[in-house]
Write a structure and sequence with these properties.
heterotrimer; A mainly alpha (322); B mainly alpha (235); C alpha+beta (58); B: 235 residues; mainly alpha; disordered C terminus; C: alpha+beta; 33% helix; disordered N terminus
Chain lengths: 322, 235, 58
């Protein structure tokens, strides 16, 4: 480390006169060992007294069984391309003007589509076509796929209207009659497939035996309202400062307080680009904290607030005594 | 060689020849020795002004991190699903969760203390910076931990966080919905990163020493000599 | 050993949570307790006297 050889003005918030005074014996390894044991006792106590939360995951099977209407309403939006995932833009698809941006800064768009999802194929027709011995469903899919875009839209719009009044009769979906062609059968079959648990496995599969990528089942789940209703009940929603929270009465991630705070504040709380705006703010603040020693006024706060007088009171007393 | 014990006879430390001095090995060793003389790397004394309980929060943070890693290793022995099916596994998961809470608890108190001491003074800015970066990296490591739980929490956190991460473009490569990817970041890449940055932070503390108190006579700072404005190892 | 004790937590933190609403701030009681504890511990760390040591010279 090189010495500063040229004299420069002493700034008390940047510089310090190095210590030439007394030292006292101190055993830092013993201190570390004692601390290690103390923390061990602390975490064992906390673990034994409070344990840890483990709310079971929601499956497509449980979702479609408990709320088949919401499942069907979600499925039709996946088929007609109006779901949140279908209209998301990159990295899932190329929906125009979907990426968040601040002025010309639109990194989502620049990085492009790298996790391609075609919701109609990946979430509806694809899984249905894996079912063996379903000539009626196969015929419905074929009819749908060979129809014009206008005909498909007419059917899906009619089904969306009808399914808004659908009921759950002993776990089975009952949709009022309407002119929705093969779509009713397709969504009904998909709901039944989900209720057997078959859709969970099919959506997870990437055409290979071993899978660890849950993108498709999670996106389908998140497109519905059932998952967010459960989260809302546990106070985990974004507008409930949920980012900081854990399920039940467990402490969560208090250190995310500032990150989630920006989401509650205008204009981020109602902006279509809110996520990117909050990220930029937090990046700026993080860099600011790293470079705090260079920032005038902020780096003077410790000296001005004088908390140090309490921390070093014995040192100042001894200096005054000598 | 000593015939009785088979050990090499004591010899004076060899001085390097000019050829050896140009070696990478010799140069790295000399740099390490001059940056971290043993009495400074593992000192047995500390400045007399260190007389406050606030000074224990650095070591409390480090040992909490050690427990995070130890409990994480035990979870790794049995795999990510173990804690859902075993009460012993659930206990270890609880130990892991509470050691993370303790880690952040002590780290933030340590940060507050270091802020109010303006601990970056005297060329300790890199020590401050590595501390802040350790904090930020730890937030990332904790986040991937929440994603690795394989329960409702993971489902909600991943589907919400994806929007923030996708907005930056990082979602094209860093897919929070991909359990396998997030687990490997959590148990391999981020622990290595956090340990490396935290390790560098501790080495910098050993190198530059603990920041001395504000000088009360510096009410009106005046130009000082070069020898006073040095941020080197304590005498 | 103590594993048998851990079939259930001694204090069950699962179940419906409790939250504090203060102006536009919403916080879980658990997080609030953690933050208050941190401030208390910080203040105590600064105020509590540290044991005196014999000087070991320079």
């Amino acid at each position: 480390m090189s010495h500063h050889k040229k004299p420069r003005r002493f700034k008390p918030d940047r510089d310090v006169k190095e210590w030439k005074g007394a030292y006292v014996p101190y055993d830092i390894l013993k201190e570390a060992f004692v601390a290690f044991l103390a923390v061990a006792v602390l975490i064992v106590l906390l673990a034994v007294v409070f344990s840890s939360p483990d709310e079971p995951a929601i499956t497509l099977k449980s979702w479609s069984t408990i709320d088949p209407v919401d499942f069907a309403q979600t499925a039709i939006t996946e088929l007609d391309g109006t779901s949140a995932t279908a209209t998301y833009g990159p990295p899932y698809n190329s929906t125009p003007d979907a990426s968040q941006h601040i002025g010309f800064f639109e990194p989502d768009q620049w990085f492009g589509v790298h996790q391609p999802i075609d919701t109609a194929r990946d979430f509806v027709t694809g899984p249905l076509q894996t079912l063996p011995d379903q000539p009626v469903t196969e015929a419905a899919i074929a009819l749908y796929q060979h129809s014009t875009a206008a005909q498909q839209a007419a059917w899906t719009t009619a089904y969306e209207k009808a399914v808004a009044n659908a009921t759950d009769v002993n776990g089975r979906l009952h949709v009022p009659a309407g002119r929705y062609g093969p779509v009713g059968l397709m969504v009904g079959s998909l709901t039944a497939m989900a209720q057997t648990g078959g859709l969970d496995g099919t959506l997870l599969s990437e055409g290979q035996f071993y899978n660890t990528n849950y993108t498709k089942p999670l996106l389908f789940l998140a497109d519905g309202t059932y998952l967010s209703d459960q989260a809302q009940a546990q106070h985990l929603s974004g507008d409930q400062w949920g980012m900081m929270n854990e399920t039940g009465n467990y402490p969560g991630q208090a250190w995310l307080w500032l990150y989630t705070m920006w989401y509650q504040v205008s204009p981020m709380n109602s902006s279509a680009n809110g996520d990117l705006e909050v990220w930029v703010i937090m990046m700026v603040l993080s860099v600011g904290l790293i470079f705090l020693p260079f920032i005038p006024i902020l780096r003077s706060v410790p000296r001005w607030t004088r908390v140090y007088k309490l921390i070093w009171r014995r040192h100042y007393r001894e200096l005054a005594g000598t | 060689m000593s015939i009785e014990t088979g050990t090499p006879a004591e010899a004076p430390a060899p001085t390097s020849t000019p050829e050896e001095s140009r070696q990478w090995t010799a140069r790295v060793r000399h740099a390490a020795e001059s940056a971290f003389p043993p009495h400074q790397l593992l000192p047995d004394r500390q400045p007399a002004y260190m007389a406050s309980w606030i000074y224990v929060f650095g070591v409390l943070t480090v040992v909490s991190l050690a427990w995070v890693i130890i409990t994480g290793c035990i979870l790794a022995i049995m795999g990510p699903s173990w804690w859902h099916v075993s009460s012993a596994g659930h206990l270890v998961n609880s130990l892991h969760l509470w050691s993370v809470e303790a880690f952040f608890f002590f780290m933030v108190i340590h940060l507050w203390g270091k802020f109010f001491m303006a601990a970056w003074r005297g060329n300790r800015r890199l020590t401050w910076a590595t501390g802040v970066i350790s904090f930020l990296a730890s937030v990332g490591a904790a986040f991937t931990g929440y994603l690795s739980q394989q329960n409702f929490d993971s489902q909600w956190i991943s589907t919400q966080a994806k929007d923030g991460i996708n907005s930056t473009g990082a979602g094209a490569v860093w897919n929070v919905l991909n359990f396998g990817q997030m687990l490997m970041w959590h148990i391999v890449l981020l622990p290595i990163g956090v340990a490396a940055i935290a390790g560098l932070h501790v080495l910098l503390v050993r190198r530059h020493g603990i920041v001395p108190p504000f000088d009360e006579s510096d009410a009106d700072p005046a130009p000082a000599t070069a020898s006073a404005i040095a941020a080197d190892e304590p005498a | 050993m103590f594993l048998g004790v851990l079939l259930g937590a001694l204090i069950n933190l699962n179940g419906s949570g409790h939250y504090i609403h203060w102006g536009f701030i919403q916080m879980s009681v658990a997080n609030f307790v953690v933050i208050v504890l941190m401030i208390v511990v910080f203040v105590l760390a600064i105020l509590l006297p540290f044991p005196k040591r014999k000087r070991g010279g320079q």
